[in-house]
Amino acid sequence: MVTLKGEHIYLRALEPEDLSFLSSIENDENLWELSHTQAPYSQYILKQYLANSHQDIFEAKQLRLIISNYEDQPLGMIDLFDFDFKNSRAGVGILVQKLENRQKGYGKEALHLLINYCFTHLNLHQLYCNISEDNKASIKLFTNQGFEKVGLKKDWTFQNKTYKNEYLLQLINS
Fold first, then answer.
1. How far is CA 82 from CA 100, 110, 120, in A?
2. Is the Cβ–Cβ distance between 81 and 62 less than 8 Å?
3. Which of 10, 43, 134, 149 could join 5 via S-S bond, C-beta 3.0 to 4.6 A?
4. In the chain, what are the domain boundaries?
C-alpha cells in the first residue's frame, strides 16, 4: 500500500469538494509569480480540471495532491509536472497557502513524502524544481531535502516590471 501519510499531514487526491480551495489559490494574484499564472481561472475551468483529476500520471503527465492536516483541512498543494516516463523524471512544485501555516514543517513533510513516493512507487530517477533566486524559504526547503542547485537561469521571469533569476535544482535517486 502506498503510504502518503506523515506525522502531521497527509497527501491526498483532489476531490470535487476542493473547488473553493483550488479557486482561492489559483486566483490569488500574490501567488501567480510562483505558478507563472497570467489571468484568473473561472469556476467552470476549475470544475473541469477537478473532473479530469482522476487521470493517471502516465496519461496526464502531472499529479496534484492536496496537503491536508489530520483535521481534514487543506493546507496547500504539491505537484508533479512534466512527468517524463522515458527519461524517468518529473518537476516538483509545492505551496502552503496561508502564511500562518508556513515555517511549521508541513512543506518539509509533504516534500519528503512525495520524494519517497516518486522514487519507490513511480521508480523515477530524478526530480527537479525551478525556484526564483529571491525565494530563500523554498531554496532552503528543497536543498534540505537533498536537491542541489545545478544552474541559474538569468533574467528568466518577468514580474513587477523587473526580470528575476531562477535556480534549477535537481535530486537524483542514487
1. 30, 19, 19
2. yes
3. 10
4. 9-124
26 close to 32: Cβ distance less than 8 angstroms: no
- Please name the CATH architecture into which domain 9-124 falls: 3-Layer(aba) Sandwich (3.40)
Whether 147 contacts 108, CB under 8 Å: no
Q: What is the pLDDT of residues 17-43, one digit of tens each?
A: 888 888 777 766 666 566 556 666 677
Q: Does residue 145 surpass a pLDDT of 80?
A: yes
Q: Give the span between the Cα atoms of 28 and 37, in whole angstroms.
A: 10
Give the C-alpha separation, 25 to 20, whole Å. Answer: 9
Q: Which residue has the cell 519507490?
A: 120
Which sign does the torsion angle of CA 141, 57, 82, 164 carry?
negative
Q: Are 157 and 163 in contact (CB under 8 A)?
A: yes
Q: Distance of alpha carbon 66 from its chain centroid, rounded?
A: 9
Nearest alpha-carbon partner for 94 in 145, 54, 50, 56: 145
C-alpha cell at 32: 501567480
Q: For residue range 63-103, what is the model confidence (pLDDT) as tens digits?
A: 999 999 999 999 999 999 999 999 999 999 999 988 899 99
